[in-house]
Specification:
The chain has 237 residues and is an alpha/beta fold. The chain is built from eleven helices and seven strands. The protein has helices spanning 4-9, 13-19, 27-39, 41-53, 55-62, 85-93, 107-117, 154-164, 180-189, 196-205, 218-223, and strands spanning 75-79, 99-104, 123-126, 139-145, 165-175, 208-214, 228-234. The longest helix has 13 residues, at 27-39. The chain is globular and about 40 Å long. 39% of the residues are buried.
Length: 237
C-alpha cells in the first residue's frame, strides 16, 4: 500500500503543467500520466471538441491533393493518431497499395480509432512517439496532430519523426499555439503551447525544414486562430 509520502509525491498532469516542472519529472512517470489522461474522459471528449472547434469537419481542408497530398506515398504514418480523425482521411486519400500506420501511446485512443475506422486497412499499434519502433527513413509522409504539446521535450519527438521520415519526405504537424484559444485548450487538456518563432527553431534543430504554413480557412488565417498547422520537409541528403 502506498505511503503518505508517495501520495504527496504523485503529481497530476495538471499540477505538473502548473508547476512548470514537466521537464524535470521522471519520463516514465510523465508518460503514464499522459496515457491515463487520454485513456479516460479527456480522450473520449476529443470527439466532442473536434466538432466544437470545427477541426473534425475541416480536416479534409488540410489533407487533400491540393494541400497535404499523400498520393504516391507508399508508407504513411499517423504518429499519435488519437481517435482516428486524420487516419480516416489518410486511408481515403492514399493510393490503394499504400501502407497506412497509426500509432498512439494510449490504448483507449487506439480503441476509439478502431471503432471509427471500421476498416482493417490501417495498421494500429501502441507506440511512444519518443521511441518509434521503425527503421530510419521508413515513411514517405507523416502526420502528427496535437501530440507535440504533450511531450516533455518537443525536440526529442520531432527528431524521432525526422528519423523515420525519408529524405525529401513530408510531415504535417499540428500543435497548440500560444494564444487565447490555445490557452483554453491547454487548460482542459493540460498541455503546453508553442510560439511559432520558438517552434521554427526546434524544427530546424530536428533536421526538418519549415516548408509551408497552412490554415483551416481564410477566416482562421485572418484571426490567427486554429493552432499551428505546418507542413515540414526532411531535407534531401
Amino acid at each position: 500500500m502506498p505511503t503518505t509520502k508517495s501520495r504527496r509525491d504523485r503529481f497530476s498532469l495538471s499540477e505538473l503543467l502548473a508547476s512548470k516542472k514537466i521537464e524535470s519529472r521522471d519520463p516514465e512517470q510523465y508518460r503514464e500520466l499522459v496515457k491515463e489522461h487520454y485513456n479516460g474522459p479527456a480522450g473520449w471528449f476529443t470527439l466532442i471538441t473536434g466538432m466544437m472547434t470545427g477541426h473534425e469537419l475541416l480536416a479534409r481542408r488540410v489533407i487533400n491533393p491540393r494541400a497535404f497530398d499523400v498520393r504516391g506515398c507508399k508508407m504513411i504514418l499517423d504518429a499519435g493518431c488519437g481517435n482516428g480523425r486524420y487516419l480516416r482521411l489518410l486511408q481515403k486519400q492514399s493510393d490503394p497499395d499504400a501502407i497506412v500506420v497509426g500509432c498512439d501511446f494510449s490504448s483507449g485512443m487506439l480503441r476509439r480509432a478502431r471503432m471509427r475506422l471500421r476498416s482493417h486497412r490501417a495498421h494500429l499499434l501502441t507506440a511512444d512517439l519518443n521511441r518509434l519502433p521503425y527503421a530510419d527513413a521508413t515513411f514517405d509522409a507523416v502526420v502528427c496532430g496535437w501530440v507535440l504539446e504533450h511531450l516533455q521535450d518537443p525536440l526529442v519527438g520531432l527528431s524521432e519523426l525526422a528519423r523515420v521520415t525519408r529524405p525529401g519526405g513530408r510531415l504535417l504537424l499540428l500543435t497548440t499555439e500560444h494564444s487565447i484559444l490555445g490557452a483554453m485548450c491547454s487548460w482542459f487538456y493540460h498541455n503546453r503551447m508553442s510560439k511559432r518563432s520558438e517552434l521554427r527553431d526546434v524544427v530546424r534543430q530536428a533536421g526538418l525544414e519549415w516548408y509551408r504554413e497552412r490554415w483551416w480557412t481564410h477566416l482562421h488565417k485572418l484571426l490567427r486562430a486554429g493552432g499551428i498547422v505546418v507542413e515540414l520537409r526532411r531535407a534531401q541528403r
